[in-house]
Write a structure and sequence with these properties.
four-stranded parallel sheet, single chain
Length: about 170
């Protein structure tokens, strides 16, 4: 990590503005709590700009899909709906381990405002879409934003930031 940060500084010195590009670490949902604790320790010491939780999973146990659906996907990483809950739990765990001071980008199974809201309440301060965007199209972003606006009001929060991590203890692994 330190070598990446050093190279990042070198590259920023070569530009006229000298701004550092934020370095984010993307984590697999297959990591256990002990591994996450060690990673968070390194992340805190190296001043990483944020975490992306999560990447695709190669594990097939505990996913929200039938064995036939999982087998039909074949080898390689799975993303989207099958790992939604695993991703949400990891976001909450990371939020708790970092005491909410490291920005977390929530990824995994976001198809509706409720999915984004769950990631936010777990501790995500940003949301990244991919599978939902592929299946639902670009309008999904507007639908999620509009739904989040209604949810914030319904749940009694003044801003989205107030909701970040509001259920992290409950949702952690």
């Amino acid at each position: 990590m330190r070598s990446l940060q050093r190279r990042n500084r070198e590259l920023s010195d070569q530009t006229s503005q000298g701004r550092l590009t934020p370095l984010l670490v993307k984590l697999a949902p297959d990591l256990g709590r002990e591994e996450l604790e060690r990673l968070v320790d390194v992340i805190k010491r190296t001043s990483v700009a944020g975490l992306i939780a999560t990447n695709t999973t190669t594990q097939r146990d505990g996913l929200r899909a039938s064995k036939a659906e999982i087998a039909a996907c074949g080898e390689g990483g799975l993303s989207g709906l099958p790992l939604r809950q695993r991703s949400t739990n990891m976001i909450a765990t990371l939020y708790n381990l970092t005491s909410g001071v490291v920005p977390i980008i929530g990824v995994g199974g976001i198809f509706a405002p409720e999915d984004a809201w769950e990631k936010i309440c777990a501790g995500a301060s940003l949301i990244q879409l991919y599978t939902g965007l592929i299946y639902e199209g670009p309008r999904i972003a507007q639908e999620i934003n509009e739904g989040l606006e209604q949810t914030i009001l319904r749940e009694g929060f003044g801003t989205l930031d107030e909701a970040v991590g509001s259920r992290a203890k409950e949702l952690a692994q």
